[in-house]
Amino acid sequence: MKKLNIANVLCYNGKYDVYLLVVKFEGNVISKKPLEEVHLIEVTYIEDKEYSQVLNKGGIEMNWTVEDKKDDDHLIKLLGFYMYFTYKAIIENPKVEIYGIPQKIFDWLKFMGQQFALGIAEFSLSGGAFPLFEEIGLKKYIAATSTIPFPIYLHFFGQELYYLMPELKHPQVYYTFYEQNQVEYLNLARKRALEKNLLGNHKLIKVEEMPKMWDLLRKSKYYLINVHPLGQFPFPNIPKRIVNIGGIEVEIEGILNEIEEEKELKEKKENKAQKNLRGFITAGDQKCFNQALYVGVPLILIPFTFKQKFNAKIAEYMKVGITVDHTKFVEEFPLAVKKLMREDQHPPNILVENGNKIKEAIEQFPNGQIKTFLEIVDKTIEDKDKEKPFPEMRKFEEDSLLYFGHKPFSVVLEEFVNSKQK
Which top-rank group of organisms is this from (predicted)? Predict the structure, then answer.
C-alpha cells in the first residue's frame, strides 16, 4: 500500500504526527501494520448498488490464452467510481473511532482542517481526497500516484507535448470521461440527498460551480510518482514539481525489517539469496519493477494490463528485461529463461550487466528516495517550494502529437549519478 509506506516514512522520520485515513471496503484488511505512532483511521465503505451502477465498478480478469482487448477501456469505465468513492464515504459523515472516541469523520476533518500542516493523497484513478481538501479548507497538499503517470495527468499539469507512450491512450479520451463522470456524480449525489437525506446537512453546490478535478489537482504543491528516476523513459521538459519517489517502499520496508529482525541474520540471508538469484519473473507491477532495480537482477516480464505492458517496454529500453507474450507462453517462456541463464556470451550477458550497473548506481545513495520525499515535505510545509508553478493546461491540438526519440539508457544512468552527487 503506497499511502501506508508514505505514512511510515513520515512517522519514522520522527518530525510529524501522521493520520492515515483509509476508506476500507468490507472484507478487505490492511495487510501491513503501520508504525505505532501513525494514527490509523478506518472509514468503512458501505456497498452502494445505485452508486456502483451509475458510475460502474468491477475487476479486470486476466486470460492467458485470449488476445488482449485494450483493458484501459474497462479502466476508463471505472474512472467515475474511483474518482469519488473516498469523497462520498467521508461526506456521508459516518462515526469512526478517533483516539478511542466515536466521532463523525467529516465533522472532525472540518474542525481539524486549519490545524493540519499538510495533506498527501492519491491521484491516479482515485481523486476523492482533493474535493475533500477543498471543503475542509486545507491549503497545502501534495498529490501522489502509485502507478506510472498517464498522459492525461501530464496534460492536467500543462505538458507541452502529448507523449505517445506505448500502450497508453491519448489524454483526450480520458478527459472526456473526467468531465462526464464529474457531472454524473454530482447529479446522483443531489438526487440521493433529496430522496434519502443520506448526506445530512451537507450543502451540494451547482454543477457549474463544482471545482474541476484537474483544477484541484493543479493546486497541489507537487505530484509524486511511484517511479524510480532510472525506471522510466527520459521524457523532456518535465516540471520540477513532478518528482520521482519510486523505491521508497523498498527502502522503508528494508528499514522496518532491520527494526524487527536481527541485522546480521538478515544480511546472511540476503547474501545467500542474491548469489543464487539469476532473474526475476513478474507481470510488471510497479512495486515488483521498483524492487528489481534495487536488487539488480534482470527481468522476465509477462504483462497483462496496459500498465504492466508499459513497464515491459521500459525494461526493454533499459536492456534489463525480456517480454513474454502470455498468449504464446509455452513457446516463448523457455526461450526467455534460456537467454537469461546463458553465461557463455561474449560480451557478457547484457541483461545481467545492466542490472548490476543500476543496482550499483542506486547503492551509492542509500535511502535516496526517502531523502527526496522528506525534502519535498519539508519544503512544502515551510513554504520553501521555489520551483516554477505548473504550466497552464493546454488545449488539445493535433500538432502537439510530436514524435521524439529517447536518449540511450547509459546516458540516463550517468546523469542520475551526477545529479545525486551535486
Answer: Eukaryota
For the entire predicted model, the pTM comes to: 0.85
Task: Note whether 187 and 194 are within 8 A (CB).
Answer: no
Residue 329, domain extent: 276-363
Q: pLDDT for 242-270, tens place per residue?
A: 999 999 988 888 776 665 554 554 554 45
The answer to whether residue 269 is domain-embedded is no
As given in the structure block, the three cell numbers for residue 321 are 528485461
Contact (CB, 8 A) for 211 and 134: yes
| Contact indicator for 142, 220 with CB cutoff of 8 Å | yes
User: Is residue 42 one of the residues assigned to a domain?
Assistant: yes
Q: Are residue 112 and residue 215 in the same domain, yes or no?
A: yes
pLDDT in tens, 264-316: 545 544 544 455 677 889 999 988 899 999 988 899 999 988 888 889 999 99
* DSSP assignment of 50-101: HHHHHH--------SSSPPP-HHHHHHHHHHHHHHHHHHHHHT--EEEETTE
Statement to judge: residues 316 and 178 lie in one domain: no
Same domain for 300 and 224:
no
How far apart CA 245 and CA 249 sit, in angstroms, is 9
